[in-house]
Amino acid sequence: MKLLTIIGARPQFIKAAPFSTVFRQQHKEILVHTGQHYDTNMSDIFFAELGIPKPDYNLGVGSGMHGAQTGRMLEKIEELLLKENPDGVLVYGDTNSTLAGALAASKIHIPVFHVEAGLRSYNMRMPEEQNRVLTDHISTLLLCPTKTAVENLRKEGITKGVYNTGDIMYDAVLQNITISKQRYASGAWLAELRNENPYISSLKDKNFYLATIHRAENTDNPNKLREIFNAFEKLDKPVLLPLHPRTRKLLDELDILISNIIIIQPVGYLLMLYLTANAYMVLTDSGGLQKEAYFLKTPCTTLRDQTEWVETLENGWNVLTPIYADSIIKCANRPLDCQKYPQPSLFGDGHAAKYIYQAIVNGGKF
Ligand code: UD1
Ligand code: UDP
Description:
Blueprint: E1 2-7, H1 10-23, E2 28-33, H2 44-50, E3 57-58, H3 66-84, E4 88-92, H4 96-107, E5 112-115, H5 127-137, E6 141-144, H6 147-155, E7 162-164, H7 168-184, H8 188-194, E8 209-212, H9 216-219, H10 222-234, E9 239-242, H11 245-251, E10 261-264, H12 269-278, E11 281-284, H13 287-295, E12 300-302, E13 318-320, H14 325-332, H15 352-361
Parallel strand pairs: 1-2, 1-4, 2-3, 4-5, 5-6, 6-7, 8-9, 8-11, 9-10, 11-12, 12-13
Helix pairs in contact: 1-7, 1-15, 3-4, 4-5, 7-12, 10-14
The structure holds uridine-diphosphate-N-acetylglucosamine and uridine-5'-diphosphate (UDP).
């Protein structure tokens, strides 16, 4: 079988790694990087760390407004599909790269296989919600990470080609956490980051918040961004913030205090896993990081009104907060009762890559 896989943004590199390894043992995968993310520490670092094969094509679309960026991808992906004529196109998640890949393939009647199908925030103002709803409705195989996702699709009348494979990000965590701990334990994480920010030395195991902020709904509203940073500034422990380039570009305009916030460049996946496991709590608006915090048993506060990953809210492992400094601080200071509760396995058994493979290659014979 010849499969063409479209990736383009940081979380998609991480999700692609476990499946590529399984699929390439017996079949041909053509890997296409749209170029949506391009900084070394938003792209190349993941290929190097996770042993992802070099993309066969990099479309180099770069940044831009949604229409322009997605349009550039569409045109280039269509050309490639006509040239390569694959048996199917695999897309991950909910970015503009996902939608462009799915739409280009669907228009010329190539089957679309969507990993992370069925997630919903029910907030159609989010670009990600638009991308995932549209992608699901033109997909041939809908590879869902959870039962909730299967049920969400059923409510929209989609039942054919739907499989609950478990979450591919859980595979990635299980495959990499031991390597991460071996590399970064015993203070090696501090040594790695010290050159970037001297205040790193003040951090102690389990005594810092790990934060990431990049969602358009937070970054594109200066008032919200100010509330977030005001909250971080007042927390009782330092906040380590590997900063997404989108947010970095907006931060200078804010004129805010950052004496409790240690800002660093985005880090690689292995270091990120170590930081997540080693933090007191994660504060984030990321989709993937909410789950990684859950898998690694670190409490999380999500700086959003909704989450697609509702399972993480059970027993308070993750809580949602509106974007007001007082509310963020209250959630960050909450008693961590969640740690008393065992976590049910709601994200599969860590072999999602195998089940995705079986759905694609064997028509779902698990
Ligand atoms: C995108 C996805 C989002 C996902 C996130 C993962 C869409 C609509 N959004 O958001 O769902 O959660 O990726 O991180 O697809 N930039 C750089 N260097 C880079 C990449 C981006 O400087 O390597 C800057 C550019 O100024 C760019 C901005 O970040 O305009 C936003 O990048 P973009 O890819 O459009 O969206 P993300 O916010 O990264
Ligand atoms: N991540 C990383 N380095 C960072 C920040 C995040 O490796 O500096 C990883 C994180 O562990 C998770 C993924 O990137 O696996 C999440 O990506 P992001 O938050 O950009 O996107 P989302 O999941 O919200 O779409």
